[in-house]
Amino acid sequence: MSKRPTQSQGAKQRQLRVGELIRRTLSDMLNRAEIHDPDLNRMSITVGEVSCSNDLKVATVYVMPLMGTVTAAECIAALARNKGEIRHRLGQEMTLKYTPELRFRPDETFDRLDETRRLFSDDRVQRDIAAKEDGDEGEDD
Questions:
Q1: pLDDT tens track for 109-136
Q2: Where would I find the H helices in the chain?
Q3: Which of 18, 58, 91, 127 has the greatest CB tally within 10 Å of its CB?
């Protein structure tokens, strides 16, 4: 019997690699304003993450507009309007058998980070952390 890695192990690594390739290529494309939409080219957009489905046929792109010039909904609407052209250009620049269907979603990472910071600055949480640290010091002695 051969010891081959299971398909889920191999697919996970490939999903991450393809997602990162799409993220970099799409970021460069938006940075160079290669899409033929003046509204989209005026927006400054960051591509935070791209996650791919198991079969690499669908890529979910998490984006966020920078500098508060437009809302996330406006940014996603502009990208969705141009997803055909974006997908075509991605296909030209990447060496994949199939160019995945693109789905754009707001990147909520920064919102979750702000909420986490707010929670950690709460007095009750600080008190619990200090009590935990005091308890750990006593165990080390």
A1: 776 777 777 777 778 877 877 887 776 6
A2: 7-31, 38-42, 72-81, 83-93, 109-121, 123-140
A3: 18
